[in-house]
Amino acid sequence: MIDLVIRSRRTVTPEGERPAAVAVRGERIAALYDYAAPLDAAADVDLRDLALLPGLVDTHVHVNEPGRTHWEGFAAATRAAAAGGVTTLLDMPLNSLPPTVNVAAFEAKLRAARGQCHVDVGFWGGAVPGNVKDLGPLRERGVYGFKCFMSPSGVPEFPPLGPAGMRRAMEEVAAIGGVMVVHAEDPALLSEPGGPTYREFLDSRPGASERSAVAQVARLAAETGARAHVLHVSSAECLDVLAAAQADGVAVTAETCPHYLTLSAEQVPEGVTAYKCCPPIRSGANRDRLWEGLARGVLSCVVSDHSPSPAELKVPDFAAAWGGIASLQLGLAAIWTEASRRGYGLADVARWMSANPASMAGIPRKGGIEAGNDADLVAFDPADDNLVDAALLHHTHPVTPYHGHRLRGAVLTTWLRGRPVDGEPHGRLLLGEQ
């Protein structure tokens, strides 16, 4: 018995783009057939020349619930995710209150999320000073790994790890499994902005700070045997350090984000603090080098780092505003706009935004259109042309640097485990290996 067939002449599989009919039984992909194969199914959807993508896996999302739900909560964030073709996300352990740094806080997070999610949601734990003893129990309870900062996080309840604390935490991660995901900026090379402008903010967080921190992460991964993943790489100065470590067999991977690949410092309008994030958006030449790093596989994942806040925290200037970009709903279109212009295809986008993040985090049955995987699927019109109106987004607060930008590509339907996401939350809470 087949419950659903979705046909597309542009089905994006792990082997590339091809005509296919995707047969769904229950919540899983049962098989792939020829596009025109006669199949007896309860429902048969023919997308014709529209693309069929695997649901995106976004492993870097700040939902902020409980405690700062007025910034962003599970209901709004997961609606935005589904509208943007994301069917699985991993929630960061901050900026919720309490942060997810022990099992009691994780249980509070699970209670807050239950029944609200429109997509499947998993969780990172946090590694902060003094909680090494909590990492094992958190891993056993189901977090996929641990997030830490090397520089101040922006919230006092989630302090950074110093060198000794970082080593001890990575030794523990090596012993218990999972991955350490690291906000890598060297605090010794950061400074307070000298004034309110974007240039002064950018100068306060130089690429050298990222490069120094990434070198420290790679060295600790080599020495402890822990898997490490560098978050939101914005500086191309990191690429040779990462490439050398990877060539030496060190278990270190890295991601970047749509805003670093599609925006540039030169185009940031003065005073428009929706562009502020940490680390910052850098030059157009730097952006080109990040694309080269992605093409070479030095950077393997493209994820949102969706970090929203109320509009009143994005004032008055680049020195004082909250640093975070809301783009969960827009990442696919933003990346497709730039990737297609640079000659990349939908199969590349699916690898960067679905298969590789799922593999990095160790989320089974996600990340690709193949038999046995969850039927997480996205009907996508790659030729659609949209002018972004922030007021129409599902994020809690309509603040985004993409407002007024013209993007290519539109998500038409998102299926989560074979069922259309249609307003009734049916996402599951995912727990890692226990």
From TrEMBL:
Principal EC category: hydrolase
The keyword Membrane is annotated on this UniProt entry: no
SUPFAM superfamilies xref list: Composite domain of metallo-dependent hydrolases (SSF51338), Metallo-dependent hydrolases (SSF51556)
Annotated Amidohydrolase-related domain residues: 52-420
Gene3D superfamilies from the UniProt entry: Metal-dependent hydrolases
Cellular component per GO, a single term: cytoplasm
Organism superkingdom: Bacteria
Cited InterPro entries: Allantoinase, Amidohydro-rel, DHOase/Allantoinase_Hydrolase, Metal-dep_hydrolase_composite, Metal_Hydrolase
Pathway where it operates: Nitrogen metabolism; (S)-allantoin degradation; allantoate from (S)-allantoin: step 1/1
Known cofactor(s): Zn(2+)
EC number: 3.5.2.5
GO annotation terms (biological process): allantoin catabolic process; purine nucleobase catabolic process
MF term (GO), any: zinc ion binding
Record's keyword terms, sorted: Hydrolase, Metal-binding, Purine metabolism, Zinc
Record family assignment: Belongs to the metallo-dependent hydrolases superfamily. Allantoinase family.
Quaternary structure, from the entry: Homotetramer.
NCBIfam families: allantoinase (TIGR03178)
Name of this protein: allantoinase
Organism the protein comes from: Nonomuraea jiangxiensis
